[in-house]
Amino acid sequence: MAITHVVSHQSFWRSAGGVLLKFFVSGALLGTALLMLPISRQQDMPVLDVLFTAVSAITVTGLTTLDTGTHYTWLGQTIIALLIQAGGLGYMLIGTIALLGKENFVSLRRQSALGVTVQINDGLSLFTLIRFVIVFSLVLLSFLTLALAVVWIPAYGWIEGLGKSAFHAVSTFNNAGFSLFPDSLMTAAGGQYMLIIHALGFILGGIGFTVIYEIAQGTRLSVHTRIMIYGSIVLLSLGTLLLLLFEAGNPSLGQGWERLGHAFFQAATTRTAGLNSIDIASMSSASHVFMMINMVIGAGPGSTAGGLRLTTFVLLVAGLTAALQGRQTTRLLGRTLQVENLLRASGILILTLALLSVISLMMLALEPGQDPLALIFETVSALGTVGLSLGITGSLGSPAKILIIVVMMIGKVSPVVLFGALAGRSQSPLRYAGGEITTG
Predict the structure, then answer these.
(1) Which of 121, 130, 43 is nearest to 89 (CA)?
(2) In Å, how far from its chain's centre is CA 421?
(3) Chain centre distance of CA 323
(4) Cβ atoms 129, 120 nearer than 8 A
């Protein structure tokens, strides 16, 4: 019994999930220590709030109990930006390099466990993908910084404008949701142009690196890439229309054509970006529930974003459609889907809903005086590593803050742990006799 436990324990810490868990925990602790330095802070702050910020940054969530722009110095803001960058790209790259160890290859089992996370396609080398991700990230971050600097340097001056541009480029690309403005992007200079640049950044950062790679190569697009492109277009279009409908009698989206821009931005940002261009607390309950559904769905595999994953959601919809039509197989984009993919998607959904239910109940028990919808919204945002809030994060008690810290870690690491466990299991040659179960 003891030997089995030791082997199992050691194998977990050598797995993709174990390596990433160590990476995120150590990164959060190091970030907390650096942010506690007097030169990183504008004033004294509780250690728990600093830890909350560090965990939120390394998990690219964006929930904060203290305003980043006023409570931290330029050094503290730089540390937060570095934590965001390490957490976003480290989710795929640093964890991958740690898996390699001192070897110059990846075993088939490790490639299998990792491939579910980064969606390594046939013919695409892991090392080629890593090189592409690094180059693409540097190019896009440079573009976003320069594009924002065009409007923010004239508005805030050279030093502050360039600093804000660089910080927001990192936050946007990594779908982190951190902002140097006290109200996210509500009062930031640049209007609709600034919102378009941010939206471009987190859409490209959240669609998945293999999707960008295939488009850049100009080759025939895989089923995965087509699902991500078509699914993103449908969800963004549907989300924009629904928010316009839900807020038809509400001035929260602004006036005239800017309503369309704000509706599109909020439909896109709820898929784990975490920035807001309007006061989302003033929006209707229907919009809040719709946002939570978007936060659960999330963005693409192998990206800097989180959530259930768009591909998982599409698989579930395809499987449900096949079941309602009475078909024995599930087809999508001219291909027959393997039953293993559907089982995995169903398992992810069940696990996600179970976690949300348990954590929501705990939050409601810890904070009985808070608005229940706001607490559930906070829970969904933390588990999906989104960062949107209805304004209650700073008013949470210490136990609730600790719970949110744990939830942010779970939201970032649990998909890799689950995928690695499923991919690492060998199939038993034994098959049991079939059975029929009545449902419905």
Answers:
(1) 130
(2) 21
(3) 30
(4) yes
